[in-house]
Amino acid sequence: MTFQETHVSSLFQAFSRYFDIGAAVNPKTLVSQKDLITKHYNSLTAENQMKFIEIHPGPEHYTFEDADTIIEFAAQHGKKVRGHTLVWHNQTPDWVFTGPDGEPASRELLLTRMKEHIDRVVRRYKGKVYAWDVVNEAIEDSHDGYLRSSKWLELIGEDYIAKAFEFAHEARSRRDSVLQ
């Protein structure tokens, strides 16, 4: 008996009055787990394909192909997409935090890079992503700290979180055309 032949109710349909049912996906699972994903989930989140290091590995270099694959799959199958993630202490390439002199980037340079990245990514997927994880895991896991130690915090300061949300709001609110 194949997965499609089983008589298990769709999870997202069963709980549609209460909340969405989400799954973390990647281009490979969209193929290998297509039946499971299309039957049971109505919200998809990219595992890594929208993280800074994957989508923006170098200055002026963006790789949208894998994220686009997830967006296209969702559109074809009537699924929502949650964007994950714009700013994170992990999986951000070193170049982001390095100034032109090889020293740590200045606050101003890092804020400019953050804004440009957020603007480009959010505008590209405007109308295709229903929610963004703007800042991921900013709170320290232990009881010893308040904010997680990160290069964002070290080089910008605590307001890096507020700035990321400000930039995401600006990008989402712009009325211009979507970037390709």
Describe the structure.
The protein has 180 residues and is of the alpha/beta class. It is built from eight helices and four strands, in the order H-E-H-H-E-H-H-E-H-E-H-H. Strands 1-2-3-4 form a four-stranded parallel beta sheet. Helix 6 links the parallel strand 3 and strand 4. Helix 6 packs parallel to helix 8. The longest helix is centred in the middle third of the chain and has 18 residues. The radius of gyration is 18 Å and the shape is globular. It starts with 10 loop residues before the first helix and ends in a 7-residue tail after the last helix. 28% of the residues are buried. The model has no long low-confidence stretch (mean pLDDT 93).
Please summarize what this structure is.
39% of the residues lie in helices and 13% in strands. It has 180 residues and is an alpha/beta fold.
Please give the radius of gyration in angstroms: 18 Å
What profile does the largest beta sheet have? Answer: 4 strands, parallel
Our count of helices gives 8
**Helix content percent band:** 25-40%
Q: How many β strands by DSSP?
A: 4
Mean pLDDT: 93
Give the arrangement of secondary structure elements.
Elements lengths: L10 H4 L7 E4 L1 H6 L1 H7 L2 E4 L5 H4 L9 H12 L3 E9 L18 H18 L6 E6 L14 H6 L3 H14 L7
Parallel strand pairs: 1-2, 2-3, 3-4
